[in-house]
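Thread: Newbie trying to understand structure tokens

Hi all, I'm a second-year student working on a class project, and my supervisor (Dr. K.) asked me to get a predicted structure for one chain before our next meeting. I've only ever worked with sequences, so writing a 3D structure as a token string is new to me. If someone could post the tokens and maybe explain what I'm looking at, I'd be very grateful. Here's the chain:
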Amino acid sequence: MQALISVSDKTGIVDFAQALHALGIRLISTGGTARLLADHGLPVTEVAELTAFPEMLDGRVKTLHPKVHGGLLARRDLPEHMAALRRHNIAAIDLLVVNLYPFEATVARAGCTLEEAIENIDIGGPAMVRSGAKNWKDVGVVTDASQYETVLTELGSAGQLSDKTRFVLAVAAFNRISNYDAAISDYLSRFRDDGSQTLFAGQSNGRFIKLQDLRYGENPHQQAAFYRDLHPAPGSLVTARQLQGKELSYNNIADADAAWECVKSFDTTACVIVKHANPCGVAIGNDPLEAYSKALKTDPTSAFGGIIAFNRTVDGATAQAVSRQFVEVLMAPEFSADALEALKGKVNVRILQLALPPGGPTDWDNGRNAVDVKRVGSGLLMQTADNREMTLKELKVVTRVQPTPQQLSDLLFAWKVAKFVKSNAIVFCKDGMTMGVGAGQMSRLDSARIASIKAEHAGLSLQATAAASDAFFPFRDGLDVIVDAGATCVIQPGGSMRDAEVIAAADERGVAMVFTGVRHFRH
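---
Reply by user tm_fold:
Sure, no problem. This is what the structure looks like when written as tokens:
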């Protein structure tokens, strides 16, 4: 048996090659890899010796030779292929070990030039991988160090790789080549004619790995699966570990993502309850139990069968309180032993543990999508993600009445929540708690009315509340509805042709109003 080894990342390769040699497998290698193996006392044949042709063009041409590709592509079950190998004195290659030039790492480095990127485009490696993977029935193709142990175990016990293993390795190999080529396309497609780069590439090459097949999609007649990014951001939903409960459904995952994205945006202890992709209760508190109790009060009817997310460790007392309601998914960075014991009887509750982004809950550079994608008929809409946070100093007071410090705190809280509510969004808040949420209506007036109705049904008063609108008021009527409900201060983007009319209405009604200059549509 013969193995060809040519790796850019040499992690673990010496131990792997030593194990192959111990199994009686002849080693062939290239350049730096060959020298490394020889330095460790391994008998290795350089590719240049095999092909009787030296490396050339600064190493750009090493393995592009019939002695290499013939040995990889020859089918052992075809006599004419084997005869051709004998006629041209080509030895079959049974195992190929290749990892590619670090193109992705190179272009991710600050200051990388186009010339550096081009020189890190591997040519011979992908060609060999494609040849070996195409001939998977006869050749095992190893493209990642994580595969070394499996390959050695099987070779050691059976003396060869099974058809199943070779096929699995071939699929992984083609996936690696696909991802590699896509990364090159993504990078080069961002260059404009003048040499500058744009965020959105000329060709979009999405690369995702399936985590699991789902029982069905949004509805039972739809098929579905769950995928993650090739390199997921830390603190994102796909990094969650399920500790308990039934298999996650399509709708569970979508709602859990909405809850997690909202709760991790708070830098104080917070609880978010989501139903059908909208927050129906959000609150901050001195501890998780207080935050949960306040969030639940907003809309206990909608919270039934909802998704609950915390940004702090769930303790036993909080878990006991949560266990008294019907919940589909419970999420937090940690669960105490007492909490898990309290929830043990709720065998169907899906418990997800996932870390907050490195740097803390408000580190917006981590754990967030940089670009959002929406599928439309035969196409995609792409945009930079809405990761904009508002600070106190950015608010512009536009009314005669000035908001108090407590009102400003509530306004920023309401604004943060409104960002995660489907448009049109109206959110009433007070003392770090949502008091009424109106979501997803065609009319902003209707969203305001619905928020008021929900507050009434929950037995909550909207008197002296802060209200947020995700977009500007086109007329004063929306503001009047909010003030009639009890709001004494309002936060909105501004920017309407009738801003003066709305500001005058606020002055007339004696309420404070601040402009953000930022809109948060969420469709």
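A couple of things are worth pointing out once you decode it. The chain has a mean pLDDT of 93. DSSP finds 19 helices and 21 strands in the chain. Feel free to ask follow-ups in this thread.
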